[in-house]
Amino acid sequence: MLVELKDIACGASQRRVSRAVAIRHHDRVVVVGGNAPIVVQSMTNTDTADAIGTAIQIKELARAGSELVRITVNNPEAARAVPAIREQLDRMGIDVPLVGDFHYNGHSLLKDHPECAQALSKYRINPGNVGQGAKRDTQFAQMIEMACLYQKPVRIGVNWGSLDQSLLARIMDENSRRPIPLSSQTVMYQALITSAIESAQRAEELGLPGNQIILSCKVSGVQDLISVYREIGKYCDYPLHLGLTEAGMGSKGIVASTAALSVLLQEGIGDTIRISLTPEPGGDRCKEVFVAQEILQTMGLRKFMPMVIACPGCGRTTSTVFQELADDIQSFLREQMPIWKESFPGVENMNVAVMGCIVNGPGESKHANIGISLPGTGESPAAPVFIDGEKAMTLRGDQIARDFQKVVLDYVQERYGKAT
């Protein structure tokens, strides 16, 4: 035998050690870092001043699986709307914690609108645009003081599109005095990391506990993001928020985000993630939540919903029946999960196989909890169904999709209903 028989390592590297930050709204507590599961979050794109429209989108994101939702707080109208948004969500039974995104005027908005400061569960502060010169330190301090007053955790989110220019100039000057100066790219990395860590240290000096600080260093390049987070993880134990900023639209944004975040997550880096997709006109904002969940689930880091295994199709599968059925089942499972996760614990571990012909169909179906092998081109017009590895029935006729959906529903109620 050419290959030596031995244990082969499988799975992600051990998680980077970090503090645990608790983000609360009433009885709901979402923990970021420590030994907690990696948290999925998203952000609204409504006008926050539209309290009803924003609350509706937050509800959609929360039902899709977003465990934290960030909202823009950019002017007094938005700040005044935040308590109404929180109240509306509470009336709808949506307890997802809200994160307020503050920039240039965050210090005055938090001070002038205490109801807003209290209604939010966490603040996001970008140290690169809280003010210029002497005002920067003062306004940053005012925001941290508000966080201390209301006992709110803070994400210090550095972005290379709005990096503190005075800090960048300082590091460039230091680099110019080196015998062999570092590359401009490395200087940029160092500026991002320094901004995040020095801001966190300053926040602690101002009285914010270290276990209420999360850091992020967002960039738009895949390799840049990987390099920055590998490095910042060496210098601190604050939890890290991962996200490729301005990832883009459609497949480009999905592929870029997946490429960057998957490498870091595999190395044990990252405690919460957001997929920053540019939505298509009229597109579903929840797509960024689904992509985040699918990254974590396909990597084996978390379970959110049953996994649908489906073949890609080939010349043996000229019929589109299996494609339509796979899409129907995927949509059916996603629609049911908000209900099922309350009533059928463990259902997220279920695998469903929808296969298109006899080559791999029966084998894959036997390995899934439930599987169906649809007839390929020229095969007998029958679809055997396998349940827990055993052939249970054969479906025929024009209602295979409806009949198989009922088989799945019955299985969930029988298998996972017992857990309650």
TrEMBL record:
One GO biological process term: isopentenyl diphosphate biosynthetic process, methylerythritol 4-phosphate pathway
- Reading the lineage from the top rank, the first entry is Bacteria
Q: Which residues bind [4Fe-4S] cluster?
A: 311, 314, 357, 364
Q: Which reaction does it catalyse?
A: (2E)-4-hydroxy-3-methylbut-2-enyl diphosphate + oxidized [flavodoxin] + H2O + 2 H(+) = 2-C-methyl-D-erythritol 2,4-cyclic diphosphate + reduced [flavodoxin]
Pathway-wise, it operates in: Isoprenoid biosynthesis; isopentenyl diphosphate biosynthesis via DXP pathway; isopentenyl diphosphate from 1-deoxy-D-xylulose 5-phosphate: step 5/6
The EC category is oxidoreductase
Q: Which Gene3D superfamilies match?
A: Dihydropteroate synthase-like, Sulfite Reductase Hemoprotein, domain 1
Domain IspG C-terminal, which positions?
Answer: 308-408
Q: Which GO terms describe its molecular function?
A: 4 iron, 4 sulfur cluster binding; 4-hydroxy-3-methylbut-2-en-1-yl diphosphate synthase activity (ferredoxin); 4-hydroxy-3-methylbut-2-enyl-diphosphate synthase activity (flavodoxin); iron ion binding
Cofactor(s) essential for the protein: [4Fe-4S] cluster
- In this record, what's one Pfam family? GcpE_C
Q: Give the cofactor note text.
A: Binds 1 [4Fe-4S] cluster.
InterPro entries the record matches: Dihydropteroate_synth-like_sf, IspG_bac, IspG_bac-typ, IspG_C, IspG_TIM, NO2/SO3_Rdtase_4Fe4S_sf
Q: Which EC number(s) does the record attach to this protein? A: 1.17.7.3
The IspG TIM-barrel domain covers 30-292
- Keyword set for this entry? 4Fe-4S, Iron, Iron-sulfur, Isoprene biosynthesis, Metal-binding, Oxidoreductase
State the family named in the UniProt similarity comment for this chain.
Belongs to the IspG family.
Role noted for this protein:
Converts 2C-methyl-D-erythritol 2,4-cyclodiphosphate (ME-2,4cPP) into 1-hydroxy-2-methyl-2-(E)-butenyl 4-diphosphate.
Q: What is this protein called?
A: 4-hydroxy-3-methylbut-2-en-1-yl diphosphate synthase (flavodoxin)
Taxonomic lineage is: Bacteria, Pseudomonadati, Pseudomonadota, Betaproteobacteria, Burkholderiales
